[in-house]
Amino acid sequence: MYFMRNIFSFSFFCMYGVHLEGTFSRQYKAEQEFVNKQVLDNVLSEVNCHSTLTCTVLCRQLDCGCFGFNSMVHKCRVHTFCRLESTLVDDTGWEYYRTSWIEFMNSQYWVGKDLVTWHGAEVICSNIGANLVEIESPEEDDFIESLVFNLTESVWLGATDIAEEDTWLSAEKNTTLTYVNWYPGQPNNNDGNQNCLSLYGPFNHTWCDEDCSKLYQYICERKAF
Predict the structure, then answer these.
(1) What is the largest CA-CA distance in the chain?
(2) Interval 110-140: pLDDT, tens
(3) For 99, which DSSP code?
(4) Taking the alpha carbons of 211, 213, 215, 218 in that order, is the dihedral positive or negative?
(5) Helical H runs in the chain?
(6) CB of 80 within 8 A of CB of 114?
(7) What is the pTM of this model?
(8) Is 158 in contact with 131 (CB distance < 8 Å)?
């Protein structure tokens, strides 16, 4: 019922609520991903909508990963996530956007909601001009904890000991980690193949080593512009 109320209220605002633009213009920004393409996968909702901005607000309310807006037909489609390998069809007027990056200190962060391997997460982050997040301080650790608080899956972080067991290196810099916050008893290299750093969901998203082939969510980080 709560979900349906949200859809109804945001459908109303999309059609009539021009006041939303002034309220949310500073908080919600998005980056263009596809033009004249429509994504068919992972659709959360489709509503009539009068602007990209109000579509962004609906996307945020539904915790989506991307959204499409068509100014010719005034429609908004929100999706769990979009990637280059998503099912795309040519459709004039659609513009797709990735949801906004979240800024903290000197970096910007983006939470990937789809499930991928550690190496897959590395590639996705690289394709959008970022790296898998490296946590470098207690303050950043607390911030990342706030980002993953509502996630139900484990999350990949940007560190590995693939090169040498128990020598954990930054995936971006290839240097020894300057900050760690392992869960008690971790890392333990269980079964001899846990070489990638994760925030392990069953342990309340705390630091654990995991098999790099597991399918987890992830966080990308880039320097703030």
Answers:
(1) 59
(2) 898 889 999 999 998 998 889 999 999 999 9
(3) P
(4) positive
(5) 2-16, 19-24, 52-61, 118-127, 138-148
(6) yes
(7) 0.69
(8) yes
